[in-house]
Amino acid sequence: MVLNCRHVWDRISDYIDGTLDPAVRADVERHLAHCEICSAVLDSTRNIIILMADDRVFELPVDFSQRLHARLDAVLSSEAPDSA
Q: Could you give phi then psi for residue 31, rounded to 5 degrees?
């Protein structure tokens, strides 16, 4: 099966946790081997997990939450509805 980026993103957590079916894991790895965007999403997700496991407290910039939500709203509203 050929996976697109959206399919890979939906499986990133299971991929990191090692809970994917071996055939699906192989499909994800094939996709990651040639997709720089998904490889970056994987690296970013791993970094977030590492940061969340760290007990240090980080101060976020002023208005970070509002800017994050505005960006997420813009990205999500520009995506076509998933027909799956």
A: -65, -45
